[in-house]
Structures are given as C-alpha cells and as structure tokens.
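In the design runs reported in the main text, the only information available to the sequence generator was the tokenized backbone. The following block is the verbatim input for one such run; it is reproduced so that readers can re-run the procedure and compare outputs position by position.
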C-alpha cells in the first residue's frame, strides 16, 4: 500500500481550515436521536424538463427509495436527516478552482453527465437543475460519515459519485463525494484508517486516483472489468479513438489495494462467492475505523450498463454481508447508493434496507425512537 498523504504543510493547513469552517456536519443543529441516520433531501431528485431521460440513470430513484421505506412503515418523513448543500469552499477541499470553474460551461457538464442536450442550456439553469442536486448529495455523503461514527451506521440515499476525481468528472459524476467525505472524516472525526468497499458494477476510478497514494485508505473494488471506464460507456461509439483510449483508466486501476475483476454475465452465486473471499482478505489485511460502502445496484440482472446477472435477492444478501462484516468488527459504516440504471433499482434498494432492519443490522423506525 502506498504511503500516507504528503501534501505540503501550507496546503494541508489550507484544506484543514476549509474543513473546520464547514457547516456540513450540522454542528449548530443538534440531530435528535429520534431521527434515523438516514440522509436524504427532496432536492436530490433531478427534474430537467425531461432532458434527464436522455440518460439511462433513474434520476428520481432517490425519492422513490424514501417513499417506499415510508410506505413500508419502516420510516417516518420526520425521521430523515436533511443535509446542507456543499459550498464551493467545501468542494475546494478536493477539487481545484480550475475544475470547479470548468463546470460553469454547460458543454463541460454535458460531457460529464453524457447528455448532449445539456450543452445547449444556459449554465444558470444547469447549475440549478443538475449541479445543485449533486451538491446536496455531496453534503449528504459528508454528513453520513459523522452520523456513522455517532450511530454505528448511516445511509445516504444518494451519492457514490465514484467516477469523479479532483480534476475530472465523468460517468454522471460531477463531484468527488467519496474523496471529500474521507478527507472531512480524517480532520473532524479523529480517525486515520478508512476502508472503501466499492461494489458498484463499474470501477471506482475517481476515488482511486484521489486516494490511491494515501496509505490511510484501503480500497476493495469488485467490478465488471469489461465496461466503463475500461471498455465502453453507453455512448462509447460516439467517442473518438483517443477518447476511448482515455477511458482505459489504468492509473486508477493500479491504485486498487484489492481488485476483484468480474466478467460480464457473472451470476448471483459466483458474485457472492467472490465477495465472501474478498471480505476475508480485507479483514486480514486492514483494520479500518470507518467503512465507506459504495452500494451500486447496477449489478442487477438486466441493467443495461452493469451487464452482470445478480438477482434482487442477491443484492440484499450482498448488502447484508457488508453490514455484517462491519458489525462483526465493530466498525462504523456509511452506505452510498451509487449507480443503478433500471426503474426497479429503487425497489431493490428499499427492500435491502428493510432486510437490514429485519436482521438487526440497522436500527430504523420504532427502534430508533426507543433510544431517545
């Protein structure tokens, strides 16, 4: 594993100051114990006059997950924790000013979210309708780390933008929320060892480029090796040969501490066997103080981008295994919902959270109220 971060002292001091000034941990708004460590805002959902439908990502899934949990009687609306929007000062903890300025170009944002029509819109509208929801989700990911340390677990019904690094977005990911939440945790939560378990169908090349040289971070990434960012995106054939080659993000791949490369078409039983083996290796290799779990549902059978064949029940078992892995070691865990490109993803996420509650791996609803 690479050595710890060696940023110049002046830069470290600047970043530390930004983190300490941030309001994203809601320090001035005490979070009642009657609330579950489940983070969501109605602002997460993206409604863009139908333009959002030009990308296969279901940009309303976050709200539907919340609604399904409420309809199931597991959660009340007033039990949800709403995050603040990540400010420019917050984002500068990881991102450069030049990158953030580049998002003032609608054409740049269009390339990141892979929706060409976005390039034709005024950037003010793009900021309000697209980037603002992303910044709210970043705030949710950062806050979830604090809640996980306080409660043992937390779920951000959103986030997991694992293709975005400090200097470049891509794959529908405009901000590096995983890198940001870990940097905030190092400074504000008095921890020095974080494990990323990335089980989205795609390789998490963004956080790997940002954190791969930091010995305080251990990355377990299990992904389909035949898809983006190595082989294709859903618009792969529209890219030039040079752009296609750039998608083969070998730099990021070299930063993975434990990689499990799957073939397209991998089915549930084989997927879970690989996960069991990987978690055993991770347990022997690294003792984290916090686990960041990127729980994409694009592993589902039928997902047009993930190209794996895991059943809905398999997703629930996968999540249960990761939460049990954390609980057995008494390590706080935060979960991000990440990718998932079918309408059924919201139902699968909600059912998985309900299963976690039934297995006493999370405390939601009346159990959460009883600890008041």
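Verbatim output:
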């Amino acid at each position: 594993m690479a050595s710890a971060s060696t940023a110049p002292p002046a830069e470290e001091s600047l970043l530390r100051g930004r983190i300490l000034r941030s309001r994203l941990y809601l320090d001035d708004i005490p979070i009642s114990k009657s609330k579950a460590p489940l983070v969501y805002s109605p602002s997460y959902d993206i409604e863009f006059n139908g333009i959002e439908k030009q990308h296969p990502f279901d940009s309303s899934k976050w709200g539907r997950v919340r609604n399904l949990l409420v309809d199931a009687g597991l959660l009340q609306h007033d039990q949800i924790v709403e995050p603040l929007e990540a400010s420019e000062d917050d984002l500068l903890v990881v991102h450069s000013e030049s990158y953030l300025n580049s998002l003032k170009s609608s054409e740049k944002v269009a390339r990141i979210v892979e929706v060409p029509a976005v390039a034709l819109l005024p950037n003010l509208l793009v900021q309000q309708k697209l980037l603002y929801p992303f910044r709210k989700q970043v705030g949710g990911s950062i806050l979830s780390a604090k809640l996980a340390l306080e409660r043992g677990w937390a779920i951000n019904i959103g986030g997991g933008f694992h293709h975005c690094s400090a200097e470049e977005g891509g794959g529908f990911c405009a901000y590096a929320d995983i890198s940001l939440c870990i940097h905030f945790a190092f400074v504000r939560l008095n921890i020095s060892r974080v494990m990323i378990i990335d089980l989205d169908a795609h390789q998490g090349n963004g956080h790997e480029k940002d954190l791969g040289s930091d010995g305080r971070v251990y990355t377990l990434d299990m992904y389909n090796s035949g898809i983006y960012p190595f082989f294709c995106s859903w618009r792969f054939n529209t890219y030039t040969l040079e752009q296609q080659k750039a998608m083969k993000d070998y730099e990021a791949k070299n930063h993975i501490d434990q990689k499990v490369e799957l073939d397209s078409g991998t089915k549930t039983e084989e997927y879970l066997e690989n996960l069991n083996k990987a978690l055993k290796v991770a347990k022997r290799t690294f003792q984290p103080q916090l686990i960041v779990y990127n729980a994409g549902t694009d592993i589902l059978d039928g997902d047009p981008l993930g190209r794996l064949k895991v059943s809905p029940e398999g997703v629930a078992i996968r999540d249960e295994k990761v939460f049990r892995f954390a609980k057995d070691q008494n390590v706080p865990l935060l979960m991000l919902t990440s990718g998932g490109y079918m309408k059924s993803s919201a139902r699968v996420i909600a059912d998985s959270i309900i299963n976690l509650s039934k297995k006493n791996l999370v405390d939601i609803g009346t159990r959460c109220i009883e600890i008041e």
